[in-house]
Design brief:
It is built from nine helices and three strands. The protein has helices at residues 2-6, 9-23, 32-41, 48-67, 72-79, 81-85, 88-101, 109-115, 166-185, and strands at 119-130, 141-151, 157-165. Residues 119-186 form the COMM domain.
Amino acid sequence: ADKINLIPQDFFAELCEQIIQHLNHKIPGVNTAELCQRIQTSGVEINVGDLAKIATVISFLFSTAARNNLSTEELVTTLGSAVSVLPKHAVQVIRHVWNEQGKSISVSEDARNMATVGQFVDIKWKLGVAMSSDTCRSLKYPYVTVTLKVADPSGQITDRSFEMTIPQFKNFFRQFKEMAAVLETV
């Protein structure tokens, strides 16, 4: 509640709306790193970890309310003692967002099972050449750096990076071609 109190109402509303969109499978996840950077730019001291925890709690709140088909008033009443702890602006935002968009959350069993794996969002790669190191004067070997942007089951978007040698990359590429060929037969 103390951390929620730090977040300005407009940013908290944006966070809640992104969570609803994620639960509706309209976006792959909530980019808490980007949102946190914007909040910090506005002069508020909050770190990404705290914002991610808040997003997880709000996501749990909305998904549980959807599973139980709660009305807006039932949701606010169910928050009960938390309402006295939560900042007034947060309760107002939760009430408003749930009232406007809460009923649209789909809670199909397939969607819940899929969400436990995470979701691929984007891929970036670059080719590099290692020229030398402190233990070897002349390396001159090429490598590929791949960065995957993935939304974990809670909706947090994270980057995962790894490097591959050229033979490893060729194997990686071959496997993607095989997947594409199988997908074309479906």
